[in-house]
């Protein structure tokens, strides 16, 4: 994976814009219940990101997962 400094910095989610839901890695049960979320991309403040892409929202590292949801992967600054 690329260093956090090379990842897009997306800021905080703006509730007025399109955003995909954000889950913790441990939220598998919740994730499986939300089948209506299915999408081929993740959205953050109206910007589309491909499955597998990473972004930094504040200091949170987010990964775009299958079905178009964000998964928290930890801190953007853990490797510095």
Short description:
With 80 residues, the protein is mainly beta.
Q: What report would you give on this structure?
A:
The protein has 80 residues and is mainly β. It is built from one helix and six strands. The chain has one domain (4-75). The chain is 8% helix and 35% strand. The model has no long low-confidence stretch (mean pLDDT 84).
Q: How much of the polypeptide forms β-strand, as a percent range?
A: 35-45%
Largest sheet: spatial strand order: 1-6-5-4
| Residues in helices, as a percent range | under 10%
Total strand count, please?
6
**Could you give the distance between the termini?**
14 Å
Order of helices and strands: EHEEEEE
Secondary-structure-derived class: mainly beta
Q: What is the arithmetic mean of pLDDT?
A: 84
Inertia-based shape:
globular
Spans of at least 5 consecutive residues whose pLDDT stays below 50 are none
The total domain count is 1
The count of helical stretches stands at 1
Reported for the largest beta sheet, the result is:
4 strands, mixed
Rg result: 12 Å
Oligomer: single chain
Notable features of this structure?
globular; four-stranded mixed β-sheet; 8% helix; 80 residues; mainly beta; single chain
Please outline the helices and strands.
Elements: E1 22-24, H1 28-33, E2 41-44, E3 47-50, E4 54-57, E5 60-65, E6 69-75
Parallel strand pairs: 1-6
Antiparallel strand pairs: 2-3, 4-5, 5-6
């Amino acid at each position: 994976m690329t260093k956090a400094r090379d990842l897009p910095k997306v800021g905080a989610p703006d509730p007025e814009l399109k955003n995909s839901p954000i889950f913790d890695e441990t939220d598998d049960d919740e994730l499986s219940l939300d089948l209506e979320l299915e999408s081929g991309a993740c959205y953050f403040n109206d910007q589309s990101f491909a499955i597998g892409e990473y972004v930094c929202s504040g200091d949170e590292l987010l990964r775009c997962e299958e079905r178009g949801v964000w998964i928290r992967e930890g801190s953007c600054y853990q490797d510095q």
